[in-house]
Amino acid sequence: MTDQQLQQLVEKISLRFFAKPFLHRAYFNGRLRTTGGRYHLETHNIDINPKMADMSSKTVLEGVIKHELCHYHLHLAGYSGKHNTKEFKQLLKAVGGLRYAPRVAGISPQAPKVAKYVYGCTHCGLTYRRQRRINIQKYVCGRCRGKLKLISANG
Ligand SMILES: [Zn+2]
Ligand SMILES: [Zn+2]
Fold this sequence. Notes:
There is one protein chain. By secondary structure, this protein is α+β, with helices and mostly antiparallel strands. The protein contains 5 helices and 6 strands. The strands form 2 sheets. Strands 1-3-2 form a 3-stranded mixed beta sheet. It has a 3-stranded antiparallel beta sheet with strand order 5-4-6, with no helix packed on it. The protein binds zinc ion (2 copies). One zinc ion binds at residues 121, 123-124, 126, 141, 143-144, 146. One of its GO terms (molecular function) is metallopeptidase activity. This is Putative metallopeptidase. Residues 4-151 form the SprT-like domain.
C-alpha cells in the first residue's frame, strides 16, 4: 500500500465513520516501532506504522486509523483527545477503533532466541541449549546422568 492509498483510506474512513473530512496528511512511517500510529498535535498529520498494512487483516489497519482519527477529530473540536478522557473513550467505541494497536512484536512471529550457551553430555553426547550458564558441577545429563561440558558460549 502506498502513501497515496493510505491517504485515500483515511479520508474514506473519516467521512464514513466520523462524518467529517480528514483535511491533513497521512503517511507511513517506518520508524514507528511499538505503536500502530501517531497523531501529531502540531501538524495534524497522522503517521501509520507500515507493519499495520502488511497484516493480512484489514480490520487492524482500519482500527488503527480510527484510533488516530479519534485523536484528530477531538483535537480539532477543541478537546484534549487524550486516551483517558471520556470523549476519547466514547468516540473510539462509537466508531469501533482499536484501543491499543497490536504490539508490533506480536505481529510477525518472534524470532527464536539464540541460545547463548550450548552444553553437551560427555557420555551420551546429547546437547543442551540454554540462555543462562548452568553449573556443570551440580547438573548432570537428564538422559544418562553423565557429566556435562560447555561446548560454546555466545555473548
Ligand atoms: Zn492514541
Ligand atoms: Zn548423557
